[in-house]
Amino acid sequence: MQNDAGPTEPAVVPLEEPAGGVPDVVTSDAALASAAAALSAGTGPVAVDAERASGYRYGQRTYLVQLRRSGSGTWLVDPVAQPDLSAVDEALRGVEWVLHAASQDLPGLTEQRMTPDAVFDTELAARLLGMPRVGLAAVVADTLGLGLAKEHSAVDWSTRPLRPEWLRYAALDVEVLVEVRDVLADRLDRAGKAEWARQEFEAVRTAPPPPPRVDPWRRTSGVHAVRTARGLAVVRSLWQARDADAERRDISPGRVLPDAAIVAAAQALPTSVSQLVALKPFAGKGTRRRAEQWYAAIGEALALPDEDLPPLRGPGNPGPPPPRVWKDRDPAAAARLAAAKDVVARTREAWNVPAENLVQPDLLRRTCWAPPEPITAATLGDALTAGGARPWQVELLSGPLADALVTLE
């Protein structure tokens, strides 16, 4: 009889308690000095993690830093009580930091004056190895056969005091991270991808902060349903009022005023507070309490002269148009993109690496829309490098891409 259940997951052993217990949270100058001294005396890489309060607080501030190094044990540091962690940073000069999804944690750690000299990113390593799931719990299970609970990943880490079960969870996040790193490093080496990983890790470590977004209010969820310039002015005014209020109160903007409320007001264009609170998204107690504030923002938008209204279309990216219009606007470019995607797909299959880790989709589109002249492996390699591709990506793709695009020509 055929079994349709599919392959079974390998058994895992639950990882329930840190080997040395849950340490006290570092909040004092003396405790921070002890942590720095212990970490400096440790050996090998250091496991690092950081917890934020996404969805609860404004911005991406770090509210807990976890570190573990052989010989020093685990340390949980409160960056609210100790915002300057340069002593820990100095203790770890020249030490490799092991993080999972480093690009998420490094910006906040930089605010605490912690910047690594070398990084090993276990999530990136898992991607380069073609692992089907790259979350920390899945990677720990795959590499070590251990079960890592993630039920506290989305809690409000700005809460003080932090709950004991949250601290246990935080300590376990770095408990075996170095051991995971060692298994992944061995797999990368055997797969011939160790140098690829080194280049990717260095790119993450040295990545500059992203530039500020143009018209960030246009990212309001559901804004596509607002069809008029006056309505968009309401979206902009409410978004800006909400953002200022959220920053002042240190609350996630979505908790101050939901996107759905902004869009509803932009569609209805209420001309009084009573009309505003009659809208369903403004019926909540907290929203009604600030109705005058929100209506003042709406009134500013309604009073704008036509020439000051925002355009229906935003500035967009200074690059090629969306691929869906390429066939009409530039059939040759559409053919180049199709051929390039085929090259990337074949390379993905050959090397078991996700397509987005082989080349950024936006970079591939830009290269196909305006390719270098003449098209050669060298000129394509230069174009990819200028767009941020790493040497290993250029080496894999420039030749096959050149062959495919020249064949089209």
TrEMBL record:
Domain HRDC span(s) in chain numbering: 228-308
Top-level lineage group: Bacteria
Pfam families per the UniProt record, alphabetical: DNA_pol_A_exo1 (PF01612), DNA_pol_A_exoN (PF18305), HRDC (PF00570)
Annotated signal peptide: none
InterPro entries: 3'-5'_exonuclease_dom (IPR002562), Exo_C (IPR041605), HRDC-like_sf (IPR010997), HRDC_dom (IPR002121), HRDC_dom_sf (IPR044876), RNase_D-like (IPR051086), RNaseH-like_sf (IPR012337), RNaseH_sf (IPR036397)
Name the record gives this protein: HRDC domain-containing protein
Native source species: Actinotalea lenta
